[in-house]
Amino acid sequence: MRIVQLGKFYPPENGGIETVTLDLAEGFAKRGWQSEVVAFTRQRPENIVRNGVSILRVKCRAVFSSQPLGLDWIFATIRRARRADATILHAPNVLGGIVSPFLGQGKSIVLWHSDIVNKGFFEVLIRPLEELMLRRADQIWVTSDIYAANSQRLQKHTDKIRTLPLGIHDVAAGPVHPLSDEIQTFLRGRRFALSVGRLVPYKGFHDLIEAAALLDDNQVIVIAGTGPLKDELAAAIDRLGVGNRVLLAGRVPDELLKALFAHAALFVLASNQRSEAYGVVLLEAMTFGLPIVATDISGSGVPWVAGSGKTGPIVPVKSPTALAEAIRTLFTAKDTSTLRRQSRERFVELFGVETMVDRACAFLR
After folding, report:
1. Dist. CA 311–CA 346, nearest whole Å
2. DSSP state of 168
3. Structurally, how many domains does the chain consist of?
4. Three-state SS for 249?
5. Interacting residues of 167 by C-beta distance below 8 A, sequence separation 6+
């Protein structure tokens, strides 16, 4: 079977959707299928084979509202997809509506990672293209039942929906390196809560920093990631006087990120909008068996991914007080072994990458 995936970017240009694309592509190839990917690149265009996957990277000519643009992608997509047994279009991707009428006779799959939200007039402008893409799809894969049920864009197409929970590799496997000197100096032997993500509004880091003001000095938070709110968050830390409790660690290499997960006492996801449709970072925390504090984002898959309380407290969005209380509860708990065991078990049972690929293959057969 020949499977062509159509994405915005592909590793080493990293992101959550890009990682899913790679894991599916290599999983299909490992099962003996002909696996191909068409994606944009900010670097030099190339046509290569890596780990059994044929990868065509075409030049990104412009980016508008997070959407890469270029005619090369459209033409390459149509050429490859017309010879495919199935195409998988990763959405959101505005160009999907443009190419969908020309994808040939194979199965047409839309993997719906997230609605387009908070884009104003652009969101209204692209709705006809999204509707065309969804109408022409044979199947629409969603990452959770909850997200699908709360997506207005999908309500006309419920008969096409299949649920494909995303999975990841077991990132806890293998050796763990020590924490960096900078982080150890900040911690001074104190236990810490870890949070990871781009420093953007919907991740809720403002709420997490405000929560730190309600914690004790021996209850600290490390935030790994970078983004446009870096200076604003640093100013908030100074204004609230919590520089001894919150460390903005910035972008960290994979080895250090693994060490942070391995040494953390708990993990916190403070996101506050449906832009956080799934929370893949929660799966990473589960591989290490971490107790989790997550937010109850209405219409998002996050509460379900987090186990609806099986891995730790679920708290209201945009509530620093509730965040602080949940974090304090886990820091002061005499025994979190049950939460740790359930966190690890949830990953093994539901969120391994092989489970995801097997399910996708079953949908495609």
Report:
1. 8
2. B
3. 2
4. strand
5. 23, 283, 350, 351, 352, 353, 354, 355, 356, 357
The reply to whether the predicted model has a pTM over 0.85 is yes
- Asked if residue 270 and residue 129 are part of one domain, the reply reads no
Q: Which residues contact 177 (CB under 8 A, 6 or more apart)?
A: 255, 256, 258, 259
What would the pLDDT profile of 95-147 be if each residue is shown by its tens digit? 998 999 899 899 999 999 999 866 665 566 778 889 999 999 999 999 999 99
Instruction: Spell out the residues 6+ positions from residue 176 whose beta carbon is closer than 8 angstroms to its own.
Output: 258, 259, 262, 263
Q: Whole-angstrom Cα distance, residue 23 to residue 25? A: 6
Residue-wise burial string across 151-165, b where 16 or more C-beta atoms lie within 10 A, e elsewhere: bebbeebeebbeebb
Among residues 75, 48, 44, which one has the least CA distance to residue 60? 44
Whole-angstrom distance, CA of residue 178 vs CA of residue 59: 39
Cβ(71)–Cβ(99) below 8 Å? no
Q: What is the pLDDT of residues 219-249, one digit of tens each?
A: 999 999 999 999 999 999 999 999 999 999 9
Domain contains 80:
yes
User: Is 359 among the domain residues?
Assistant: no
Which amino acid is it at 1?
M
Tokens of 213: 């003001």
ω into residue 128 within 30 of 0, thus cis?
A: no
Domain that holds residue 191: 181-351
